[in-house]
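Re: the 584-residue chain
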Amino acid sequence: MEVVSVSVSRPRSVTIGGKEVSTGIFKEPASRRVMVRRLNVDGDGQGDLRVHGGENMALYAYPMEHYPFWEDELGRTDLPCGQFGENVTVRGLTEDMARVGDVYRIGGALLQVTQPRIPCFKLVHRMDAGPAFVKRFLESRRMGFYFRVLEEGEVGAGDAIELIEGAEESVTIAEFIEFTQFQTHDPVGLRRVLASRDLSTGPKGWRERLETMLQKVERVSATQGWDGFRTFVVDRKVRESDTVTSFYVVSEDGGALPGFHPGQFLTFKLYIEGQARPVIRTYSLSNSASHTEYYRVSIKREAPPEPGLPAGISSTHFHDQVEVGTRLCVQAPRGQFYLDSSTDTPVALLSAGVGLTPMISMLNTIVDSGNQRPTWFIHGARNGREHAMGAHVRHLAAEHDNVRVHISYSQPRETDIPDRDYESRGRIDVDLLERILPGRDFEFYLCGPTPFLTSLYNGLLAWGVPANHIRYEFFGPATALQPEKERGKPLARTETITGAIQVNFARSGVVASWDPSSSESLLDLAEAQGLRPDFSCRSGICQSCMCKLLDGEVEYFLEPLDVPDSGCVLICSAKPKTDVVIDV
C-alpha cells in the first residue's frame, strides 16, 4: 500500500447555479512533501467549514483503483490525481479494506480511518459531468474515506501505508456506505456501524445521526414492519418441483418478524452481475402468517419466452446464485390482495402455475388458525414435474375435514396417476367449478396467468357470482379482466366533465376528466384513453411507470417504496389533487 500523490488547494470562489460559493475542491498535486496537521494539511483549505474539514475529516483519501472506472464511465483520459478533491490518492487501500478505527502510519503522520466521504453539489461542478453525477458517484460506492490525525507529520508521494492497529470489530468503509446510504432501514446494519471503534461524534460526526436513524427504524418496525430495505439471510433453500424452489429468509439478527396478511408479497432489491442498476422484484409469501420466525417465498424459474431470448433475470439469479447464507435486501410485506380472515364464508382458492404461492399461504393460515370455514383448493398445472407442494396440500386435506382439493393437469405424463396426483385433465374453468363445488356462495381468490384470470373472472360473473366476491392478484390494467362490453369506453380526446379535475397527457395530446369512480390511479386513466405507458408492479415499487409531472399536484394512495425523482410521479399509485399535466 502506498501514496500515489498528495494534493492541496486554497479555497476559491466559483459560480454554481447563479450563486457564488467558496470551495477547496480544485486540488492539484503538491510538488513536495506536506505537513499533515490535526485539522488540515498545510497549503490546503475548505470553503465551507460547516460541512467540511475538522478533526474527523482532516485528510481525505481516494483509491487510485477507481480512476480507470471513472475514465471508462465518463469517456475521459484527463483525470489527474486530486480530481475528486482528495488530499491523498492511495493505492492498495480501498473501501472494502479500510475499517473504521484502523490506524495507519503514512510517512511521519499517524492516521485513523473515520468515515466515508459523502459527496456534495460542488463535485458536480468539479467533474463537469452533468447534474446527476453526485447520484452516480454515490451509487458507485467508490467514495473514498477520511482520516483523523493522531500524530502530525509530513506525507509525500511514494510513502508506504502501514497498518499499525486494525479494528476488526468495526465495519469496513464499504459496509459503512451500504448501511448509511442504501440499507438505511436495516437495524442490524445500523447497530454494526454504531459498534465501530472510535466512531466520529459531534455536529459533523456520525454517532448522533446513526442513533437517530436507528430509533426511527425501531419505532417503525414495532408498529408496521419496517421502512425501506433491510438485510435478511437465506436460512433454507428447498426444491419444491423441477421448476419451483422455496427460499426461507430470516432477519440477520435472528429476531421475530412482523406479521403479514396471507397473500401479500415481499420486495427484493437484487444486485445481479451484468445489470447496471439493482433489480427490484416482488414474490408472494408462501408460508402461513402464523410463522414469525421466517418468511418463505417460492419462486419459479422462468424459461425464455421463446428461443433466443434470455430467461428470467431475477428467477435465474435466485435459482443459480442464491444459496444458504446469502444476504438479501428485503422490504416489508405489502400488497392489497390477501385473505379476509374476519369472515367464515366458504372460500375457493383458484390458481394456475406459480400462482399457487399466495394460495398456499392462505390455506396454511386457515389451517394453522383452527378456522373451520369450508376451503376448496383448486389448482391447475401442466403436469407433476411442474406441480409444486402437491403432497403438502393433500396432507392438509387428509388431516382437516374442512379442506377439499382438486388438481387439474393440462398435459399429464404417463407417470402422473389420476386420483393420486390429479383429479381432472384440462384447465380450470367455470364449467369445472360448477361440477365440483356445492354452489357459488364462496369468496373466490384468483391468482395465475392473464388468460386464466380473464376466463375465470368473466366466467364467475356470468355464473352469477357478485364482483365483490371475486378477489385476484393481477399486474395489468384494472379493466383488462372485465367483459369487453362492460369496459368503460375511452373518453374523447376533448371530452370533459364539468367541475372535474383535468388530466393532460401532454405527449399524446389527450385531455381527460378524472373520475375516481372509474379510475383508481393515473395509470388506470391513461389506459382508459387507449394509452400504453410503461408499468410493471402497479404497486409503487419498481418505478417503471415514472413520468415527468409538468404541472399540478398529485397524492399517493399507495406510498412509493422509493421516492421518485424530483419533478416526477409514479402514475401507478398516484391520483391528481389538482389539474395536472403529465409527460405521457
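The radius of gyration is 29 Å.
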